[in-house]
Specification:
This protein is an alpha/beta fold. The protein is built from 13 helices and seven strands.
């Protein structure tokens, strides 16, 4: 994963910016307080870390990619940027009041170990807020029509909601809640399903290069064929029928929140 994001990180900030609405939901769920310490785990180049810092939140960023950390540090040196993994953050016990994870848990090598580490570093009543997607949600992406093998690989690396909830409960977290998120037309962070309502985005190489599924999981022949079909369908308007076919109420992504038990 470090190698993957060292490569993607070269031009990551061209298309991966902190989305205002997602940032607001992070703050809403985290409910940060003054004089407390927060963490962005899997911070990448620090877009959401910086966004929360600018809202007056004391926050640090951790990421396993040296390329990502160097870019983050070059953007805002006032924040502590640390190389580390979800399984081994290097932070002290009970040192963090809350944390966010944005589209990163599918890159963790050991989900149970990562949440044990999160539990260890969180203070009692400390809260986490995860933004992620599930295989069930991803089955509802119209991208499956054009890039079936890529989406299959993408789904396979995502933990299901059932597995995620089981791990969280086994670790000792409580008050676990979920909130559906639907991609909007004004999304500013161009992650995998950013083109839900703007399919032309996927025709841009710079958009695809910032998405790990396209950059790392995709078969070149499938991508070329899928883009050819997608371009034709956009020109003819048939893409609208494909989008309508995949319309669903599962949510495209979700926020998952939980609290470290006080007992």
């Amino acid at each position: 994963m470090t190698v993957r994001y060292d490569k993607i990180g070269m031009n990551y900030d061209q298309t991966r910016r902190a989305d205002n609405y997602i940032s607001e939901r992070f703050v809403f769920h985290l409910k940060p307080e003054d004089n407390k310490q927060y963490l962005d785990l899997g911070c990448g180049t620090g877009n959401y870390t910086i966004k929360l810092f600018e809202k007056g939140i004391s926050i640090i960023g951790i990421d396993p990619s040296e390329t990502m950390i160097l870019k983050a540090r070059s953007k805002l040196s006032q924040i502590d940027w640390i190389m580390g993994t979800a399984e081994h953050t290097g932070l002290n016990n009970n040192s963090i009041d809350g944390l966010i994870c944005c589209l990163t848990i599918h890159h963790w090598t050991d989900l149970s170990a990562a949440f044990r580490e999160i539990y260890r570093i969180l203070k009692k009543n400390g809260k986490f807020v995860i933004f992620t997607s599930t295989p069930n949600q991803m089955e509802g992406y119209w991208l499956n029509y054009y890039f079936p093998q890529m989406l299959k690989k993408s789904r396979e690396q995502m933990p299901s909601l059932e597995i995620l909830l089981k791990v969280l409960k086994n670790t000792g977290f409580d008050t676990i809640e979920t909130e559906k998120y639907f991609v909007s037309q004004n999304l500013q962070d161009y992650f995998l399903y950013c083109g839900k309502q703007r399919p032309e985005l996927y025709l841009k190489p710079e958009i695809r290069n910032g998405i790990s599924s396209f950059a790392d999981l995709a078969n070149t022949v499938e991508i070329e064929n899928g883009l050819f079909r997608l371009s034709k369908d956009i020109d003819s308007g048939y893409i609208n029928s494909i989008i309508d076919k995949y319309e669903n109420e599962k949510g495209d992504y979700m926020f998952v929140t939980g609290t470290k038990a006080s007992g």
